[in-house]
Amino acid sequence: MHSVVCIKQVPDSxxxxxxxxTNTIMRQGVPAIxxxxxxxxxEEALRLKDRFGGKVTVITMGPPQAEVALRKALSFGADDxxxxxxxxxxxxDTLATSYALAATIRQIAKESPVDMVFTGKQTIDGDTxxxxxxxxxxxxxxxxTYVSRIVSVDQDKREIVVERRAEGGVQVLKTSLPCLITxxxxxxxxxxxxxxxxxxxxxxxxxxxxxxxxxxxDVTKIGLKGSPTVVNKVFxxxxxxxxxxxxxxxxxxxxxxxxxxxxxxxxxxxxVEKELAKRA
Amino acid sequence: MxxxxxxxxxxxxxxxxxxxxLAKAGLSVLQLERGEAAGSKNVQGAILYSDxxxxxxxxxxxxxxxxxxxIEQRMWVLDDESFIGTHFRSDDxxxxxxxxxxxxxxxxxxxxxxxxxxxxxxxxxxxxxKELLRDKSGKVVGVETDRADGKVYAxxxxxxxxxxxxxxxxxxxxxxxxxxxxxxxxKEIHFMPRETVEQRxxxxxxxxxxxxxxxxxxxxxxxxxxxxxxSDSISIGVGCMLSDFMEQKLTPYDLLEQMKRxxxxxxxxxxxxxxxxxxxxxxxxxxxxxPRVYGDGWMIVGDSGMFVNAVHREGSNLAMTTGRMAxxxxxxxxxxxxxxxxxxxxxxxxxxxxSFVMKDLKKYxxxxxxxxxxNQFFTTYPELLSRSAYTMLKVDGVDKLTKEKEIxxxxxxxxxxxxxxxDAFKLWRAFR
Lengths: 280, 432
Hints:
The complex is a heterodimer. Chain A is of the alpha/beta class. Helix content of chain A is about 30%, strand content about 25%. In chain A, strands 11-10-9-12-8-1-6-7-13 form a nine-stranded mixed sheet, with helices on both faces. Chain A starts with a strand and ends with a helix. Chain B is of the alpha/beta class. Chain B has three domains: about 5-65 and about 105-175 and about 285-355, FAD/NAD(P)-binding domain; about 180-285, D-Amino Acid Oxidase, Chain A, domain 2 (2-Layer Sandwich); about 370-430. Chain B is globular, with a radius of gyration of 23 Å. At the A-B interface, helix 5 of A face strand 7 of B.
């Protein structure tokens, strides 16, 4: 079982703050982390390796400093890591990114056939959830999004059964391998790597692939050129200025308070009053 | 089985200096750090003393992230409304190579760790050393980490695991920390435009100012405050003995808040945006608190060995120096093919005794006790000094002789003649 896990290095959004005066995002000193959703994908791939053997290859497309994220993935137990990095990738949107990653995975498969591709359900910086499905489409893989559990894998029949969170319930889906899974958060918990894993990660000679190594021929499909998305405007939504109001009630019995509250609401939302009157 | 020449536990200034020196000499070095990355647990004021780092990395100025070189030192003694003090500013400090710099440790430690890695040491973070491994004779032969298959071996283990040094304590090499021997310091970094820092402190380019403070800001507790100028920020902090905090039931945070409101300090930090808040323990027990720092297969460096000169606010330079000397001792033995036995490692202690590290600590050996049992140095004197200055400088028709008499009377009233002489003697003895 050979799984490829796609991860992204993102700024730790929990630590990003907006400048009080200029309203711009303050990136200075914000640490870079592995997109937290991707960790569920990585752990699930590692569990498949535990069950069926094989290996886990982690890839990311990004600037050279994304090496830190890959090394971290290795310290959890991944076997191989490839950093796909090239100046011509700059400015890529999800369309161009999925093109580059799909090309990379095809190159990897030439050496060792790929059974599964994992991604997180989305990133915390872009929040589009488009790259996973984009890769599946370009590689013509079966696509399973928002997977909460892998129920079973039949390697002989090349079949997989998963649980998928859907609106209003859980779907149990069966499909054939190879497939692409986007993993739901909370579906597992990342392991604490072993000491040998730490040594391997620290000593690992990182693989850097430029666009040629990644097998990309058509440069019009990558980077800014391959990205139809246009960022028109970036703005910080202004906080809504709804103020809380204290309602003073004389007497103060629970019934009095309730009546006063209802009267206040009725005055503010006449439609609610009408609807309540109709039902009463 | 993983086996190295040396394992260094901790990635602070002492651990980094040791690991760098060892790796540079071609020894195989493993550095273990429990924080998320090397440096993430490190806290300091922070002033970098060039000399100690120069002896480890001579050309550090080429790429180390330095904030400002210090050209002016202010010493303030404060009461509630005033400060009285000295300023020393000299253009001699503007002649390179500069002697002292302000630094921001988050940036500096990243750089230092990269240097260690480039020198060839293997750094593994997010890994805590649980205990030392020993052979039948009791010699330390490696460490056990908190990870599965976590045993790693080495000829010698350097404990650079900081003030708490759980490792040295667990192994029985060091006693439990005495609250009277540790200070608790808190610090904030306030960011503001570069020009604002330069205007407020009358400096230009990369010039910097430091203010060391003493007096009522510590509310009678033994401690000091500080304010340092960085490129586009100001570090401000205060530290007192842990035992004092416990007795007075004060929190360091409240102390810092109050200090920031002092009328002489508030205008200096006004309008800044606080981006970093840190707290740290500082081992200030001095000479008498230093444990045994070497044995069969092990050595202790930096804060872990209580190497801090509290009087002169020096710690990181002692850390780097002890780290370097431990490393140099090992290198010498390694090259001579000698084992890392207690008898051979005694060379480390000899080097320390011969250096400024032990000489300075010995000089001030009684200082902690003197200040600890005499809080008049932190309350009464600052107030008396301020009041004297105020009396002398206020022009109000009273003749100067009467004023002088009045001032002397106020000193006598508060401390008595014997008290004053006694305090002078104590200070003289402590600084002797």
